[in-house]
Amino acid sequence: MTKILKPIGFWLLVAFVILFSIFPFYYAIISSLRTGQGLFDPSIWPSSVEFANYAGVFRDVIKVWGADLPSFLWSILYSLMVAVSVVLISLFLGVTAAYALGRVQFAGRGLLLMTILAVSMFPQVAVLSGMFELVRIFGLYNQAPGLIVANLILTLPFTVWVLTTFMKELPKELEEAAFVDGASPWIVVWKVFMPLMWPAMATTGLLAFIAAWNEFLFALTFTLSTDMRTVPVAIALISGASAHELPWGNIMAASVIVTVPLVVLVLVFQRKIISGLTAGGVKG
Asked: Which of 15, 26, 70, 186 is deepest in the core (most CB within 10 A)?
């Protein structure tokens, strides 16, 4: 009897976790397909399907580089540019720092690693005022570089820590053989170690992209004009066509639009994510 109940209980628990995780996104989808009083319908299956909310999201137009673009579309493109820049910088600095921290022996290396990890433990609001002063002093307020630098605080500590852990597990013989052949440390990093680090880089890069894509507090604080707003801020500032129109349908539609690409990325790279997170966890 116990042998039967254990798998049943396990699969019931799995079903509950899946339902608990997916249902909010599913409800956002069906809410985005409702309009008017249908938004207050508590049923979990839409009685009708309408795409007016999706059209409403792209209603407002903004002039960018002399061309008229839907403001929400520009926010998506702008967020993509910021997030990709954050990922590239995080991976470049993360790989070089991981080599120094994982392969080079020097005094205070452990303390430096713990300091890097401790930086990621501070909540955003704790560093918000200091980051605002830095952004203002360097003249980066309401500019993309200001957002990129601010987002590096969120992504760089995790990237350095994961890549350093992975770098420590790479065989020393590869490095020693490269040095015997006359390779410099730079060549060792980019020609020898880089091909072996793709699982860890795919993991940290994707997580850095998600963090930069979803970041709200810095984007709200360090931007002012409409053309500098990232997707989370643009969604938060969505309003109805009139003062009496509720924007919930448009907000749900916008949320679905910006969430689907992340879901697709995770599904495509799920094996890379798992192998990257578990790399270095077991020594042979």
From this structure: 70
Instruction: Fold for 62-278, please state it.
Output: MetI-like fold (1.10.3720)
pLDDT tens digits along 19-45: 888 888 888 889 888 887 777 777 888
Give the H/E segment covering residue 61. strand 61-64
pTM higher than 0.90 for the full model?
no
Q: Phi and psi dihedrals of 267, rounded to 5?
A: -65, -40
Tokens of 173: 């013989």
String of DSSP letters for 207-276: HHHHHHHH--HHHHHS--SGGG--HHHHHHT---SSTT---HHHHHHHHHHHHHHHHHHHHHTHHHHHHH
Both tokens of residue 282? 């077991």
In the chain, CATH 1.10.3720.10 covers 62-278
Tokens of 253: 């539609």
Share of the chain above pLDDT 70, in %: 92
